[in-house]
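in:
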């Protein structure tokens, strides 16, 4: 696997961020990551194929919303919350508040921990 490419903060564009957030699955991923925790790709539960979820995660990364880290064969993703707040103050909070109000992206969740039902 080749290392993931991430745009520098100054290269993140408003139109790129908004385009990445134009899909409910991607909004759902951002909502899950909004707590600041790093998550393994396999922890996400979404009503799409794994390849489609991978595509959504790549779109978020390419737009500068997330950062991906590889560890062996596993990939982990984290929201670039601080960097996004510095680049576009208030945008992330507004998007998350609107998504909460509209219940947008609710179909994306974290898989239950093993042994928990």
């Amino acid at each position: 696997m080749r290392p993931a490419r991430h745009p520098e903060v100054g290269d993140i564009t408003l139109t790129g961020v908004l385009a990445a957030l134009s899909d409910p699955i991607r909004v759902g991923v951002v909502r899950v990551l909004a707590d600041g925790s790093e998550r393994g790709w396999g922890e996400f539960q979404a009503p799409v194929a794994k390849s489609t979820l991978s595509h959504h995660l790549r779109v978020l990364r390419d737009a500068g919303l997330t950062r991906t880290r590889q560890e062996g064969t596993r990939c982990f993703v984290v929201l670039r919350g601080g960097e996004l707040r510095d680049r576009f103050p208030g945008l992330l909070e507004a998007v998350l508040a609107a998504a909460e109000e509209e219940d947008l992206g609710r179909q994306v969740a974290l898989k239950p921990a093993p042994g928990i039902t």
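note: Helices lie at 14-20, 24-33, 50-63, 81-87, 91-102.
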